[in-house]
Amino acid sequence: MSWAFLRDLLSGVNKYSTGIGRIWVAVVFLFRLLLYVAAAENIWKHEHDEFECNIKQPGCENVCFDHFFPVSHIRFWALQLIMVSTPSLLVVFHVAYRENREKHHNQKLYKNPGKIDGGLLCTYLISLILKTGLEIFFLVLFYKLYNGFKIPRLVKCDIKPCPNTVDCYISKPTEKMIFLYFLVAASCLCIVLNLSELSYLMFKYSTKCYLKRHVNKQQ
């Protein structure tokens, strides 16, 4: 899979982000995207082929794998990365709209089309809320699908066509567990950064509005 489009998206968003937003971009790019491409994809590459059960009953191994891994970890994280990065497009599109509006009217309508204020501030706040909501949704979904954040060494399966309860073994469970914890920690860090940026922007512009109102009253 080519991740060039996501890299370009993150680079574009970085131009219009606050300091905290730039840290978020760095975390997504360095600790999630690069880790996924460089390591995680290879570790889970042959997860189905390396899943072994102590019985050769036709279909048993496939059914057990599907039961314990309803969605491939690697595809799940790919979808998560794409979904949590997509709300940032709202900010890029809004800035593009401002720039096109200036070209259409052939005059300067904004001090800086990429400055976070007015309507762009609302768009930015909405994108932060969506990113935070999606991060939490995917963490909860992962927890529900796999009964926690763990990679067991051994799973017991008694689903038909297995004739009885069979033992199935997952390859490289320790290595997978380490990367799982790292990716979950990176996701939690992104949630903290999004909430911090949301709080910072709301506090900053609430204070700005309050001071402006106070100055107007004084005048």
TrEMBL record:
GO terms for molecular function: gap junction channel activity. One of its GO terms (cellular component) is connexin complex. InterPro entries: Connexin, Connexin_CCC, Connexin_CS, Connexin_N, Connexin_N_sf. The chain crosses the membrane at residues 21-39, 76-97, 118-143, 178-203. Residues 42-75 form the Connexin N-terminal domain. It is found in: Cell junction, Gap junction; Cell membrane. Keywords: Cell junction, Cell membrane, Gap junction, Membrane, Transmembrane, Transmembrane helix. GO terms for biological process: cell-cell signaling. It is a multi-pass membrane protein. Residues 134-201 form the Connexin cysteine-rich domain. A connexon is composed of a hexamer of connexins. One gap junction consists of a cluster of closely packed pairs of transmembrane channels, the connexons, through which materials of low MW diffuse from one cell to a neighboring cell. Belongs to the connexin family. This is Gap junction protein. It comes from Cardinalis cardinalis. The gene is Gjb7.
